[in-house]
Design a protein that fits this description.
alpha+beta, 1 helix, elongated
């Protein structure tokens, strides 16, 4: 998707596994850096406490 000033909207799909607090800190940092979290799916494994699996769809602006 083309935007003004030659920027384009880019989409990135990521799968991450980690402890809850580390993943939350990472999400906050990418939002501060200008990424928009479009979709977030969390999966918890009851065998491993505080370990989450995340599927994330991010949107961000990138120059050509």
């Amino acid at each position: 998707m083309a935007l003004q000033n030659g920027l384009q909207m880019q989409k990135l799909q990521i799968r991450a596994v980690g402890d809850f607090y580390s993943l939350l800190r990472w999400l906050r940092q990418i939002e501060r850096d200008g990424c928009k979290v479009k979709e977030l799916r969390l999966h918890s494994d009851m065998q491993a406490k505080e370990v989450l699996k995340m599927d994330i769809l991010l949107e961000f602006h990138a120059g050509n």
